[in-house]
Amino acid sequence: MIELLNVSRTFTVGDQQVAALRDINLRLDAGEYISIMGPSGSGKSTMLNMLGLLDRPSSGTYLLDGGNVTELNDEQQARVRREKIGFVFQSFHLVPRLTAAQNVELPMILAGIPVEERKARVQVLMQNYGLSDRADHKPDQLSGGQRQRVAIARATVMNPTVLLADEPTGNLDRNTGWEVLKLLEGLLEQGITLVVVTHDAEIGARAQRRIHMLDGRILSDEANQNDSK
Amino acid sequence: MYLRDLITLTSSSFLTYRMRSFLTGLGIAIGIAAVILLTSIGEGLHQFMLAEFSQFGTNIISVQPGKTQTQGGNVGIFGSSRPLTLEDADALRRLPYVEYVIPGLVGNAEVRYEGRTRRTMVLGEGRDFGKAFTMKVQSGSFWTDEDNEQARAQAVIGSKIQQELYGGRNPLGSWLRIGGQRYRVVGVMESKGQILGMDMDDALFIPAARAMELLNRPGLMEVNVSYRADVPADTVVRLIRARMTEMHGREDFTIISQEQALEVLSSVLDIITFAVAALGGISLLVGAVGILTIMTMAVTERTAEIGLLRALGAREKQVLTLFLSEAMILSALGGLMGLIIGVGISQGLHLLFPALPVHTPWLYAVLAELTAVTIGLAAGVAPAMRAARLDPVEALHAE
To answer: Residue-wise over A138-160: b if at least 16 C-beta within 10 A, else e?
Structure first.
């Protein structure tokens, strides 16, 4: 469960203070499917970074699973990211030097998980995502859809409680985008909390709960009655 | 993070930028090779010089007349001090630990045999000369009796004298005229060649007592004392100083222990070796700048990757470790390459020019490799710190 209490985030650009988030109060329950929509500059990316502990609020409190994570130091925050949060990016962010399997393995390497366990988990995931025959390929030998599937495998390999997806279909054609989205939505069955940031209304509408943002504020927060999934 | 994973991750970036990594490593390699090569030559020179100076044996102490401080030089008989005498030599011979005492003086005299004449170096020495110094008699032997009052006219000649005056014939038992006196030849020295500019083969040895008379000298130029190898030089020096002071009433002589002289020489040569190593070190510095450049570039190029690592849960310290070890491994590999090049070239030089003294001290090789690693570490610190302190959000969006 995630709770943001009076969270603000201001950036200093030149000698001006720019507010990316203004006094946000938000509560996300475990297993929810949330989309965050809004035009660029509305603060949705900052919100995602905040939820992913990549950014710290200028003021306010962030409670994750009941614990205050605002005050944690770098090492503790890194641990939370590693164990509870998964990221999926628009541009995939795969390490080009590593194979697909190694990319999936990366979070476990950073966590210091023993080799045997890593190999086993990677193998299972690669199979689940239909990437078994692509395991030893470098990212530049993969199609866009395959790359994003590798990225999703990497984001879920540590069994996070929250998956944060920033325009996950932005760099994909329509069909591939739908496939990737279905893959992400399938994770909901495992009890994961899925947050998708998008400016595509069609994609945003698929979520049970839709949050619209503008100028760093939550404009609307509505639950979808007729689940289109 | 396991060490094995660290190596896998860093080597993956070397493999991606093969040429670039190789060239950067080469910068370090050239530096290390220069250090190895220069120290090898320096150390070779060191050993050559020491061997040259210690070829007469090392456990020898020399007593010379005159005190260095008083006259500005131990000029022997020209000094104002009392001359060294054969009695002094006899007195030293009775000291404990002393094995042989060889009174000595040098001069020039005309030597004639069957109408052939040659001016040559005459060394007045003691009968134990061949035993105290590592100089061997090729045939015959040194005179065996030694009587200060009436030393017998016997001579040991150098191999060159034998060649020049006897034309290679056996000179043993023949009578040689040295400065107008007749000497019986009792031995021929083994050829030794030039020693610090003195041709020991173009010399002959006669008893010191006779040499003093022949060369018209009131005293000896030196008394060499050889002592047991298991006794420290200082002990013997103290004993000699006490006995000589007792004999002369004051300290009007100079004692030079070869061991001490060699120590001084050795430390001077050490400094030379160190100095040339430092010269090679300059090229290492250039290599370090190369590492710094490449690591700075790597951090810039891989900013997005650093952001990703942080998003995946990497701590600042892990990012620091990743980049630091990349710099270290790069320069360690370069160092290893330099070690091989350096040792290869010095051994090649040794094969091409056997006269050139070359010796690779392994301590220096290990030190050079450690230096390479340290340089990698030092050059990697700034870029790695920058990488670790990048803001994850900004880093992620750098493309």
So the answer is: bbeebeebbbbbbbbbbbbbbeb
Residues B29 and B118 in one domain: no
Is B20 contained in some domain?
yes
Greater confidence (B193 vs A26) lies with A26
The tally of domains found in chain B comes to 2
Query: Does B76 score more than 70 pLDDT?
Result: no
Helix %, strand %, coil % of chain A (to 5): 35, 30, 35
Domain residue limits, chain A: 2-11+25-223
Whether residue A198 lies within 8 A of chain B, CB to CB, comes out as: no
- Same-domain pairing of B147 and B270: no
Q: Which CATH architecture best describes the domain A2-11+25-223?
A: 3-Layer(aba) Sandwich (3.40)
End-to-end CA, chain B: 27
- Across the interface, whether the CB atoms of A97 and B311 are under 8 A apart is answered no
Nearest CB among B5, B310, B392 relative to A109 is that of B5
**Rounded CA Rg of chain B:** 33
Per the structure, the complete domain to which residue B47 belongs is given by: 3-52+264-396
Residues B27-59 have pLDDT tens digits of 999 999 998 888 888 888 888 888 877 777 778
ipTM of the complex: 0.92
pLDDT band of A228, cuts 50, 70, 90: very low
Report whether A157 contacts A188 (CB < 8 A).
no
Q: Point out the residue among B5, B307, B313 whose CB comes nearest to the CB of A81.
A: B313
